[in-house]
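The records we work with from here on pair a chain with its fold. Taken together, the C-alpha coordinates spell out the fold as the letters spell out the chain. To see the layout at work, look at the sequence and C-alpha coordinates printed below.
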Amino acid sequence: MIAPARLLTVLLVVLSTAACATVVSPPAPVEAPAPSVSPGVAPAAHGTRNVDVTFYGGPDNDPPGSTDIAYPNGRHGSAGGVGSYDDPVTLATDPRELPPGTVVYVPRFKKYFVMEDDCEDCIAEWGAHRRPHIDLWMAATGSTLPACEQTLTPDAPVPVEINPPAGRPVDLRPLYDPATGSCW
Protein backbone atom coordinates (compact mmCIF):
# COMPACT_ATOMS: atom_id res chain seq x y z
CA MET A 1 0.00 0.00 0.00
CA ILE A 2 1.28 3.50 -0.89
CA ALA A 3 1.43 6.02 1.88
CA PRO A 4 -1.01 8.90 1.41
CA ALA A 5 1.78 11.50 1.40
CA ARG A 6 3.68 9.61 -1.27
CA LEU A 7 0.49 9.10 -3.33
CA LEU A 8 -0.14 12.80 -3.14
CA THR A 9 3.41 13.55 -4.37
CA VAL A 10 3.11 11.14 -7.32
CA LEU A 11 -0.29 12.56 -8.22
CA LEU A 12 1.06 16.15 -8.15
CA VAL A 13 4.00 15.18 -10.38
CA VAL A 14 1.68 13.51 -12.90
CA LEU A 15 -0.73 16.44 -12.93
CA SER A 16 1.99 19.08 -13.25
CA THR A 17 3.63 17.13 -16.07
CA ALA A 18 0.31 16.87 -17.88
CA ALA A 19 -0.33 20.58 -17.46
CA CYS A 20 3.03 21.42 -19.03
CA ALA A 21 2.56 19.15 -22.00
CA THR A 22 2.28 20.98 -25.31
CA VAL A 23 0.04 19.74 -28.04
CA VAL A 24 1.72 20.25 -31.40
CA SER A 25 -0.58 20.67 -34.38
CA PRO A 26 0.63 20.51 -37.95
CA PRO A 27 1.08 23.98 -39.44
CA ALA A 28 -1.91 25.43 -41.21
CA PRO A 29 -1.56 25.50 -44.98
CA VAL A 30 -0.23 28.80 -46.22
CA GLU A 31 -2.13 30.38 -49.08
CA ALA A 32 -0.20 32.17 -51.78
CA PRO A 33 -0.74 35.92 -51.54
CA ALA A 34 -3.12 37.40 -54.05
CA PRO A 35 -1.44 39.32 -56.86
CA SER A 36 -0.99 42.98 -56.08
CA VAL A 37 -3.26 44.84 -58.48
CA SER A 38 -4.82 48.21 -57.88
CA PRO A 39 -8.62 48.24 -57.79
CA GLY A 40 -10.08 48.53 -61.26
CA VAL A 41 -6.77 47.62 -62.92
CA ALA A 42 -6.54 44.26 -64.63
CA PRO A 43 -3.12 42.72 -65.18
CA ALA A 44 -1.94 43.36 -68.71
CA ALA A 45 -2.33 40.52 -71.13
CA HIS A 46 0.34 39.18 -73.41
CA GLY A 47 0.13 38.94 -77.16
CA THR A 48 -0.85 41.17 -80.02
CA ARG A 49 -3.84 43.49 -80.22
CA ASN A 50 -4.91 46.29 -82.54
CA VAL A 51 -4.98 49.73 -80.95
CA ASP A 52 -5.52 53.33 -81.97
CA VAL A 53 -2.18 55.13 -81.85
CA THR A 54 -1.69 58.87 -81.39
CA PHE A 55 1.28 60.95 -80.31
CA TYR A 56 1.97 63.63 -77.74
CA GLY A 57 4.76 65.90 -76.57
CA GLY A 58 5.42 68.71 -74.15
CA PRO A 59 2.93 71.16 -75.68
CA ASP A 60 -0.02 68.77 -75.21
CA ASN A 61 1.15 67.19 -71.95
CA ASP A 62 -0.38 67.92 -68.56
CA PRO A 63 0.77 70.41 -67.43
CA PRO A 64 1.44 71.89 -70.88
CA GLY A 65 5.10 72.25 -71.78
CA SER A 66 6.26 69.68 -69.21
CA THR A 67 7.75 66.21 -69.37
CA ASP A 68 5.82 65.17 -66.24
CA ILE A 69 4.41 61.65 -66.16
CA ALA A 70 1.62 60.30 -63.96
CA TYR A 71 3.60 57.20 -62.89
CA PRO A 72 7.28 58.08 -62.30
CA ASN A 73 9.29 54.95 -61.61
CA GLY A 74 12.79 53.49 -61.45
CA ARG A 75 13.00 53.56 -65.23
CA HIS A 76 11.92 57.16 -65.88
CA GLY A 77 11.20 60.13 -63.65
CA SER A 78 9.83 62.05 -66.63
CA ALA A 79 8.75 61.28 -70.19
CA GLY A 80 11.54 59.95 -72.37
CA GLY A 81 13.30 56.84 -73.60
CA VAL A 82 15.02 55.80 -76.82
CA GLY A 83 12.85 52.84 -77.81
CA SER A 84 15.10 49.94 -76.86
CA TYR A 85 13.93 47.10 -74.61
CA ASP A 86 16.13 48.49 -71.80
CA ASP A 87 15.01 52.11 -72.33
CA PRO A 88 11.51 52.11 -73.82
CA VAL A 89 9.79 55.36 -74.76
CA THR A 90 6.98 56.65 -72.51
CA LEU A 91 3.42 55.90 -73.55
CA ALA A 92 0.16 57.17 -72.07
CA THR A 93 -3.20 55.42 -71.89
CA ASP A 94 -5.89 54.43 -69.41
CA PRO A 95 -4.33 52.48 -66.50
CA ARG A 96 -7.29 50.08 -66.67
CA GLU A 97 -6.28 49.22 -70.23
CA LEU A 98 -2.56 48.80 -69.55
CA PRO A 99 -1.28 48.98 -65.97
CA PRO A 100 1.68 51.31 -65.38
CA GLY A 101 4.94 49.56 -66.20
CA THR A 102 3.46 47.48 -69.03
CA VAL A 103 5.88 47.25 -71.96
CA VAL A 104 4.52 47.44 -75.50
CA TYR A 105 6.33 46.87 -78.79
CA VAL A 106 5.05 48.73 -81.85
CA PRO A 107 6.35 46.95 -84.97
CA ARG A 108 5.36 49.85 -87.23
CA PHE A 109 7.94 52.08 -85.51
CA LYS A 110 10.30 49.29 -84.38
CA LYS A 111 10.29 50.62 -80.83
CA TYR A 112 9.49 49.48 -77.32
CA PHE A 113 7.26 51.73 -75.19
CA VAL A 114 6.29 51.61 -71.52
CA MET A 115 3.04 52.74 -69.90
CA GLU A 116 3.99 55.66 -67.61
CA ASP A 117 1.40 58.37 -68.18
CA ASP A 118 -2.33 59.08 -68.41
CA CYS A 119 -4.04 60.05 -71.65
CA GLU A 120 -7.34 61.90 -71.23
CA ASP A 121 -8.79 60.80 -74.60
CA CYS A 122 -7.61 57.22 -74.01
CA ILE A 123 -9.29 57.15 -70.60
CA ALA A 124 -12.57 58.47 -72.04
CA GLU A 125 -12.54 55.95 -74.91
CA TRP A 126 -11.64 53.00 -72.70
CA GLY A 127 -14.25 53.97 -70.11
CA ALA A 128 -17.05 54.46 -72.64
CA HIS A 129 -16.38 51.73 -75.21
CA ARG A 130 -13.35 49.68 -74.09
CA ARG A 131 -11.63 51.06 -77.18
CA PRO A 132 -7.85 50.48 -76.95
CA HIS A 133 -5.88 53.65 -77.54
CA ILE A 134 -2.27 54.51 -76.71
CA ASP A 135 -0.57 57.91 -76.96
CA LEU A 136 3.18 57.72 -77.69
CA TRP A 137 5.67 60.30 -76.41
CA MET A 138 7.67 62.20 -79.05
CA ALA A 139 9.59 65.12 -77.50
CA ALA A 140 9.33 67.99 -75.06
CA THR A 141 9.61 70.84 -77.56
CA GLY A 142 9.84 71.68 -81.23
CA SER A 143 8.23 74.12 -83.61
CA THR A 144 7.13 71.34 -85.99
CA LEU A 145 6.27 68.82 -83.25
CA PRO A 146 2.44 69.12 -83.66
CA ALA A 147 2.74 68.58 -87.43
CA CYS A 148 4.91 65.51 -86.86
CA GLU A 149 2.37 64.12 -84.36
CA GLN A 150 -0.33 64.43 -87.04
CA THR A 151 1.88 63.00 -89.80
CA LEU A 152 2.73 59.84 -87.85
CA THR A 153 -0.79 59.18 -86.52
CA PRO A 154 -2.18 56.16 -88.40
CA ASP A 155 -5.68 56.32 -89.91
CA ALA A 156 -6.63 52.89 -88.52
CA PRO A 157 -5.72 50.75 -85.50
CA VAL A 158 -2.28 49.15 -85.69
CA PRO A 159 -1.03 45.90 -84.15
CA VAL A 160 1.08 46.20 -81.01
CA GLU A 161 2.62 43.49 -78.86
CA ILE A 162 1.86 43.60 -75.13
CA ASN A 163 4.67 42.50 -72.77
CA PRO A 164 6.97 41.37 -75.59
CA PRO A 165 10.30 39.67 -75.06
CA ALA A 166 13.60 41.45 -75.69
CA GLY A 167 15.15 41.06 -79.10
CA ARG A 168 12.61 42.62 -81.43
CA PRO A 169 14.09 44.79 -84.23
CA VAL A 170 14.67 48.33 -82.93
CA ASP A 171 15.12 51.65 -84.75
CA LEU A 172 16.72 54.09 -82.31
CA ARG A 173 16.07 57.18 -84.43
CA PRO A 174 13.83 59.54 -82.44
CA LEU A 175 10.23 59.89 -83.59
CA TYR A 176 10.87 63.63 -83.56
CA ASP A 177 14.22 65.39 -83.31
CA PRO A 178 13.75 68.86 -81.80
CA ALA A 179 17.28 69.91 -82.79
CA THR A 180 16.59 69.42 -86.51
CA GLY A 181 12.79 69.40 -86.60
CA SER A 182 12.91 66.07 -88.43
CA CYS A 183 10.00 63.69 -88.14
CA TRP A 184 10.64 59.93 -88.18
